[in-house]
Amino acid sequence: MKDNLKILIVGFISGLISGFFGAGGGLIVVPFLSKFMKMDAVRSRATAITIILFLVITSSFFYFRKINLDLSLVINCTIGGIIGSYIGSKLLVKFSSKVLDIIFIIFLFYSGIKML
Q1: 1 in helix, strand or coil?
Q2: Residue 103 belongs to what domain range?
Q3: Rounded CA separation 39/49 (Å)
Q4: Counted domains in the chain
Q5: Which of 25, 30, 39, 64 qualifies as a cystine partner to 43, CB 3.0-4.6 A?
Q6: pTM here?
Q7: 24 — pLDDT class (breaks 50, 70, 90)
Q8: What CA–CA distances, in Å, run from 50 to 43, 54, 67, 74, 116?
Q9: How confident is the model at residue 28, as a pLDDT?
Q10: Alpha helices by DSSP H, 93-115
Q11: Which pLDDT belongs to residue 62?
């Protein structure tokens, strides 16, 4: 029961961040699954991606209804994203947990610096 409440709270926070910023649920879900749920790096990232799928679908529905989206940009970026996701998912299983953690930390650090 205690774990279910933690999972629900993490889901709520990641959904809130995803809806508010348009992304970012993985920044909450991946570390939670790795550290608190003791999942290995590959499983935590694969699980997070699946969770994020539903967060993105929900947010996209509301964005699509209320905001005028550039559908040409959405389609072109989606095509590139599908190709990148395929390659990324194939590469994920080739790295150790330690290397994946380092890559994730570098990505977070780089993203944080770019946002300043």
Answers
A1: coil
A2: 2-115
A3: 14
A4: 1
A5: 39
A6: 0.71
A7: low
A8: 11, 7, 25, 20, 29
A9: 84
A10: 97-115
A11: 80
The sign one gets for the Cα dihedral 3, 89, 77, 116 is positive
The two tokens of residue 14 are 């990641």
CA distance 44 to 66: 33
pLDDT confidence of residue 42: 86
Considering just the CA atoms, what is the radius of gyration of the chain in Å? 15
Supply 32's token pair: 């939670």
Cβ atoms of 45 and 88 within 8 Å: the answer is: no
pLDDT tens, 37-89? 899 888 988 898 888 888 888 888 887 887 778 888 989 999 999 999 999 98
Contacts 24+ apart (CB under 8 A), 17-23: 18/52, 18/55, 18/56, 18/59, 19/55, 19/58, 19/59, 19/62, 22/59, 22/63, 23/56
Query: Residue 83's CB: how many other CB atoms inside 10 A?
Result: 10
What angle is formed at CA 28 by the lines to CA 75 and CA 17, rounded to 5 degrees? 60
- Regarding predicted confidence, which is higher, 14 or 76? 76
